[in-house]
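Cross-check.
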Amino acid sequence: MDIEVIVTTLSEAIEAERLGADRLELIADMEGGGITPSFGTIRNVVEHVSIPVHVMIRPHTRSFHFNEDDVETMLADIGLCRELGVNGIVFGALTQDGAIDERVLGEVIKHKGEMTLTFHRAFDASRDVFDAIDVLNEYPEVDILLTSGGAITALEGIDTLVELNERAEMMLLPGAGITVKTLPLLKERLDVNMVHVGNGVRTDGRFDQTKFNLLRG
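Predicted model, tokenized:
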């Protein structure tokens, strides 16, 4: 089982790679749900780790609905990520009534170049996750869907995750509340090759070698 780990600093990125992370999601403001990290952080992480780095593209945490100024900011950040050699971007946008914002998604696709595109847990805030997956399936440029199945944790959303995994035409990446205790239960039901973790590999805010090892089973 591969592990994507949330990191917020260069030190965390180096440590996560050393302990066995297979991929990094680089963000700022983890407690608030994640926003785009600084240019310097992105550049330094890309230069100092050898595993793939996927960067959060989100200008604020107020909602997943973005106005024109927000979109302009996100496209500029995507351009910087592309220039810095980032492997992938992590993005999600909804309309005011909770549908996938296809207009913004289309703009992101046009600007992302060869970077991998993950649609993040904005998906879980959509008005209907099954309608949302049908929309995302129409965009082959969406490579990964990060989701908890619309629930607070992936384990609570396991039934929905199983159905989404059957419907999805992209890689399903379960995330939210995955720990060494809950992962075996997820693996019993869900056929995926990677999980997304944050606090699940941390103890008192610091990475834990034992938890990395246990998550690998």
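The chain is about 35% helix and 20% strand. Residues 7 and 13 are 6 Å apart (CA to CA). Passed to J.P. for a second look.
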